[in-house]
Amino acid sequence: MRKCTLSVIIAGALSLPTLAQADNNALQQEIDALKAQNKLILERLDATAEMLETPSAAGATDTTTIHDHGAGGEGTLRDRTFGIHGGKGKTTIGAYGEMHYNNLNNKKPGGENLKEMDFHRFIMFMGHEFSDKIRFWSELEVEHSVLKDTADGTNGGEVAIEQAFLEFDLNSDTAARAGILLVPVGLLNETHEPPTFYGVERNNVEKYILPTTWREGGASLTGRFAGSFSYDLAVHTGLQVGASNNYTVRKGRQGVAEAPASDLAATARLNWVGVPGLVVGAAIQQQTDITQSTDATAGSATLFSTHVDWQVSQFRLRGVYASWSLSGNGPASVGADTQRGWYLEPSWKFTPKFGVFARSSQWDNQVNSGTDTQYDQFDVGFNYWPHEDVVLKVDYQDQSTPVGKNEFDGINLGIGYQF
Predict the structure, then answer these.
(1) 387 secondary structure, DSSP code
(2) In CATH, which superfamily holds the domain spanning 61-418?
(3) What DSSP element (H or E) covers 293?
(4) Would you place residue 362 in the very low, low, confident or very high pLDDT band (cuts 50, 70, 90)?
């Protein structure tokens, strides 16, 4: 019995190296298979990367850039692969928007109060740099949240292209643009993202006299010279006003939607920036026929405006004056041959997150009517920026309006953002 057991033990011991060798062979085969699989994966990744980086017959990879829309200009940009379309370049996306709550009491007897919530604007921005000297910029806007059919057409929603133009660098100081352009007048028409200005609503002078957001189709030159000056020269479509709206300039915007172009307009602006924190400028526009040849009783129109934006430490002062002169018996008959307005807005920013403002404004679209057509408004309030590109706004407005016109006093609340 002992001999038999000993024989079995010896035989088992002699067979262990063979079994271990078999296990090692199996393990080595698995390792070799994993190495081959890993090599295949790496080769495929390298091939994909090469395809994305090198133009092919189907096109080349663009780069999407998350855009610092207003606060920091280009700033630090974060890139990611976007897709294959067109030529190689860099695509930029961004947005801004604002929602308002108005709680306003109508001081006119029998007039309705205004108490409403409105997502006033939602704008998507997209740009593309084809090269170091050629680029495209655009903004698509949705106003009042929704656009729908109504029996009487009262829905106030709108979907519109706010701007869409190609820009060509001619040299280090000059660029040419062509497409849908924001007219270079005032302080808000080109820069109106909510975190960049005080007050829930845009000021009424740059609404009714300089009809923000005012865009036209055309071409322009923009540049700088002498170290302290910048300029804009533009030829573009013009307004189309008429007797049915008392020749009010805001009613004449066409939005470049099959806009009549019988009578083009020309705009020139000059800014001086010779002192740090100070911008002083003026603009002039001339249009041969502001009715686009639809009203023989009206003719040419000239706009003159001037503006100042002065920042000294925590104090800031902004102001605009603008005046229209319309020729012809038609505008003169309703007093609209002169339309003008102005505002002054001092503000104080206590911290990077909190600032207060006050604004006094006056505007009149029928100065020479011989009756009371002048509007006055005083606003006071504050902005709070939890982030430089996010703002919370509160203000109180006090209006004085012509006889028979709504006169709203009360509180406005707003939120806004940009990126």
Answers:
(1) E
(2) Porin (2.40.160.10)
(3) none
(4) very high
